[in-house]
Amino acid sequence: MYPSEARLNYILNDAINNVEYFRTRVHRSETITTTDLLNQFPILTKEEVKKHKDHLFSDRAKEKIKGVDLFSMDEFLIPESTSGSSGFPIIIYKSKLERFQLAIDLWAKRRLIDERVNQENMFCLIHLPHNQKKIIKDTRNLHPDAIQEVLNYLIESKPLLLHSTPSDLVKYAGYILDNNIDLKDWKPAFIESNSEILTESDKELITTAFQSKVVNAYGSREVWSIAYECTEGLLHLSDNVHVEIASLDSDEILETDSDKYGEVVVTSLILREYPFIRYRMGDLAKLKTSNCSCGSKSQVIELHDARKINLIHQVESSNKIANGVSLFKGVLWDMLSKGYSGISRYKVIQSEPKLFEVYLVLEGELNQNFITNFSEFSKRRLEQDDVTILIKKVDNDHEIFNGKSYSFISKIKI
Ligand SMILES: [Zn+2]
């Protein structure tokens, strides 16, 4: 393996030479260091990728895909759609070779946890492989009957590696514990949690329900694995990425070992045909030098429970991280202490700096007392009097609950 600086240098130069978007934005000088060269690259947002989607292909890829409908083609580039948790999905592309290289790295990490795991004894709740589709109809259906059907299959087939998102795993864990489901002699070697931030409390719940170790894999559809949990429980960066942490309100890059949280900015050292260079992930983290006893020298990433869209946008810029998910959980607690126990589901959207839209699924009717109390508790916890709290009663299947299930999102760019 080449030292990562050489790989980074190669990727950056390849992008300048072969990708129109970077060729027109970055000016290279022959004597420049890799760090200085990297600093000349713009920090890329999802909006920017969407806007310039046709200029991010390499010249090699453009040549091969000329006149071909990308979604009917599976020869050279394979399209994927991101999950769209930040509001809109984007289409990204990887070559078969790139996917192969990324998969090899991921399997190496998994085998460090348990060397018995392989593609044959792995079960994915989120991307169902072809051979499992025949047996299980729909693993994304989280109705109790559907969960029971999948569990029956798992208990019977005993996969060694179970892979899913924390939110799905939590639903399964809740079902197992609430119904005292006996998993018989099925004991996965480990459960891999992927795609979303895994909180400590969710990890504990999943561990208890499945009686199995939960391993956190941090990555994204765009670049795949970014970090993988080691035997000591720390998330070490993959060799296939270069990670920087950007300040939350500017493009300034924070020093490694800084105490401040910033946003993860990732550069893939593998992807060349549709590269991701200095790409803002929307996740909040700190980057630390490793002195981990597992022996890995890779830097350690410490993720915050909230993503950037879960943060309350403050009108006055401040360093305080106000996590909307926990703040409104607090408001619900206040309501419960006042005797309002009929809130069965909710979602809050900060649609303007001073406007919070609250969608509630209620057992009873929405009355003025309820509205006044909810409003007052919200303002108190927000420490702002001049905000509007707009409360709406909705049904359980209202479109507001579609997609990822964050209970708070801010639609304001911060
Ligand atoms: Zn370690």
Which secondary structure elements does this structure contain, and how are they paired or packed?
Blueprint: H1 4-18, H2 20-23, H3 34-39, H4 46-51, H5 59-65, E1 77-81, E2 91-95, H6 96-113, E3 122-124, H7 130-133, H8 144-157, E4 161-164, H9 166-178, E5 190-193, H10 200-210, E6 214-220, E7 224-229, E8 235-237, E9 241-246, E10 262-268, E11 279-288, E12 300-307, H11 324-337, E13 343-352, E14 355-362, H12 368-382, E15 388-393, E16 408-410
Parallel strand pairs: 3-4, 4-5, 5-6, 13-16, 14-15
Antiparallel strand pairs: 1-2, 6-7, 7-8, 9-10, 10-11, 11-12, 13-14
Helix pairs in contact: 9-10, 11-12
The protein binds zinc ion.
The site of zinc ion has 7 residues, from loops.
| Biggest beta sheet summary | 6 strands, mixed
* Helix content range: 25-40%
Q: Please report the distance between the alpha carbons of the first and last residues.
A: 38 Å
| Averaged pLDDT | 87
Strand order of the largest sheet: 3-4-5-6-7-8
| Each distinct ligand | zinc ion
Structural class: alpha/beta
Spatial shape: globular
Report the strand count. 16
Order of helices and strands: HHHHHEEHEHHEHEHEEEEEEEHEEHEE
